[in-house]
User: What shape does this take?
Amino acid sequence: MNSEPSPTARNPRIAVYSGTFDPLTLGHEDVARRTALLFDEVIIAVAVAHHKKTRFSLRERMDMAAEAMASAGGHIRVLPFEGLIMDFCRQQGACAVVRGVRNLTDFDYEAQMAAMNRKLNPAVETVFLLPQAELQCISSTLVREISTLGGDVSQMVSPAVAQRLAPRPLQV
Assistant: This one.
């Protein structure tokens, strides 16, 4: 019997899935769950987002992500981050950043960011995942707008997130 730990036990493969997640959608959940099948650990890195007016506070966005991902098992964690994602990856020992890509517009932007991130930290790969086809039209921005106007978002977000999406003003 080999008592030597497996290579992944010594060096777990950690992926970071970052975003504002204002709010976390079913598309985000799909990408996070599928990422968990590819890596030993997934960190959902919720951005402080000083540059954006968010509907939900950082704490609320983290709580919603944790609630929505609770059934995914113990190898998905939710952490806040501020600053450069490559610095966060270095601090967490991550080998990859995962980005959800819904369309060509997303891909153009994300490919540019991936190239820049590679310059900042060549040890971290960027992995692009497409959400399931029926989730590709969902964005946090559209969910916020639909919810604010009284529309039904229950097919776009988890029940825990839908409950928090009662009409409310943007955070300043």
Notes: Helices lie at 7-10, 26-38, 58-69, 85-92, 104-120, 140-148, 159-164. The longest strand covers residues 41-47. The beta strands are 14-19, 41-47, 76-81, 96-100, 125-129.
